[in-house]
Amino acid sequence: MPQNYQHILALAFAIKEINENPQILPNLTLGFHIYDSYMTPRLTHRAALQHISPRNRFLPNYKCNIQDNVQAVLEDIHSDNSPLILDLLSIYKIPQLLYGPALVMTDNTQVPSFFNMVPNETHQYLGILQLLLHFNWRWIGLFTVIGANLEWFMQRMFPVFSQHGICFAFMYSQSNVEGNEYMTDYAKRFSGVYEKMMGSTANVILFKGQACSMIIFRGLINLIQMKYMMPKPKGKVWIVTAHVELKTYDVDWDVQIFHGMITVAIHSSELQGFQQFFKSRKPSSAEGDGFLKDFWSYTFRCAFPNSILSNRDQVKCTGNETLKDFSAFEMSMTGPSYSIYNAIYAVAYALHEMYSLKVRAKMQGERKKFQNQQPWQLHHFLRHVSFNNSAGDHISFDHNRELIAGLDVINWVTFPNQSFVRVKVGKTHPQALSEQALQIDEESMVWQPRFNQVRPLSLCSENCNPGYRMRKREGAPFCCYDCTQCPEGTVSGYQDMPDCSQCSAGHFPNKNKNYCIPKMIRFLSYQEPLGAGFLLLAMTLSLITVLVLGIFIKHHSTPIVKANNRHLTYILLNSLLLCFLCALLFIGKPEKVMCLLRQAAFGIIFSIAVSSVLAKTITVIVAFTATKPGSQMRKWVGERLSVSIVLSCSCIQVVICIIWLVNSPPFPDVDMHSMMEEVVLECNDASPAMFYCVLGYTGLLAIVSFMVAFFARRLPDSFNEAKFITFSMLIFCTVWLSFFPAYLSIKGKYVVAVEIFSILASSAGLLGCIFFPKCYIIVFRSELNKREQLIRRNQ
To answer: pTM of the entire structure?
Structure first.
């Protein structure tokens, strides 16, 4: 991989700067050895043993000269082989600085000699989580080529993703590929998985692997597309972890499917002088660089004489080619190269601090002791190293010996000629999941052509608009749901609300149920048609009552007025007048005095009216009974009986009302809940039981009056009102029996309207049935209002 040559140059560049800097390790020279494990356990173990062997000899555990004093080991090791290195080098307590994929472990105290130059997997996934939340990608897929990583992800990160509303359309894991296994059954199995991934409704796929994973993945895609003639897949947004990246190699494999890929990568910055150091490399001036010729041959498509990579068809390399103007190869600093550079400086500063400490102590033979320094003594100084590199970034380790650093967000742009370029579009702060952890320039990002350069959506379900709530689909992941409108009386003001909420007191939902509107304040007022109508009706009936009373007073000496106790008639007419006027107490804004008076006044006045009707009926019965020879009822004839009936029956109602007003008096109240769009000002009766007692007692008097009048209806018509009282009580009872269901079923100001209507209707029934026939005779048939006529009719 030609990009890997940058890692070697970063190492050489850092060593060169340190050795040329008189402020760091004066009079000492740093050197290095490079080993390639080829990602195989055997060569990995061989390379680890070579670290504890003499130079150019394989004799583990022997040190033959002071020049081979290994102070630290930089590692980029395949995770399957990492235990081989850790176990072996930990025996010698050699500091190990990892610039490759971080190991999966609870904390680094398990390996005291281990220092991590890159954020661990947890931080990487938390950075990816921030990215998903920023773009609102809630429905994603996961693919990894290492089964162990998927298991770790399920245990450690899956709950975190789920808590933040991310769910997975699929989670596939493929074992690593060895040799040509992918040519047979592996390719067939992979084709099924790949087809499902590409056909999924999830537009975002999280890819987890190592440096070689992308190479294998691209090779498998190329193979199955040729072997199984699979159609070109629709575009997806690939999000890959820090160590997975596109690399250039001499194979014509399509990279267009990864256009717009996003990497949460190791942070890197451009180092001062590194680009000049890189571009100035030439085979003729790079003595000791055994990698340059291979890199040169690949970059310029030429061959050096006697090179094992030479091809007869290739042109010969002259060595005069220059990298200065060569744009086909990406030369910007990568994360692994930057980590290598920082690791070298961390070791150098730690050695310098350890050496300075010995100098200050003025120990005898400090130079010799320093050259024979044991690696384990360097750990303390590495843990506390802190410096700013040439790019201005601060380098230090946390308590777990992990580098305190954020991550870069890289957007990959590919081209039809299979080249590509990485564009840094953002970064994540080391404090994962904080409010400002992610900074991203979304305008600079590119997406797959399928998305028409618009931010892709990746949701299992459409967003539920305000006014709707999410309803989970049975048997589907939690982020798959249907949208249902909020129930009556509730709202949802944002997208994707799990439930709807009630409006605050004094507000109600608008038509679309996406925000709350202040309720209108309502009460039965004189300004509205209903209140004005009741006022007009009450005043009209009051005037009619006054007119009837005037007629009876004017003709008080006539037989029809004198019959049936004219004093009771006056009491009844006055009580009916007060009943009509009492209805006005129910109209208008409820006030304290109004609320105290209206139900009590209504109950007492109606009791007087009904008691008067009852007294009139009983008086007729007593009068006719007393005319029989030897009757004992004569002593009851007179006004004492009628007055006693009215007073006794009315006093009981007065006592009930006094008890009500003393114990739990009515008061002005605000009804927030009865009406959806209105706040109703009302009088709270405080004690519904007492209210029904008042109505019940009045109803009892009416029923008794009706029964008495019904039995007296056959008495001579000329001398009693029994028939008229019977009809009036029938109307009275019918009105108030109808009042109860209406009163209990309606809400708001119409409750008051029903009571006003019942008061006016029942009072008008009494007035009309009892007094209309008499007024007709008095006014229009005065010839009948004579004693002779009454006696003749009675005979």
So the answer is: 0.68
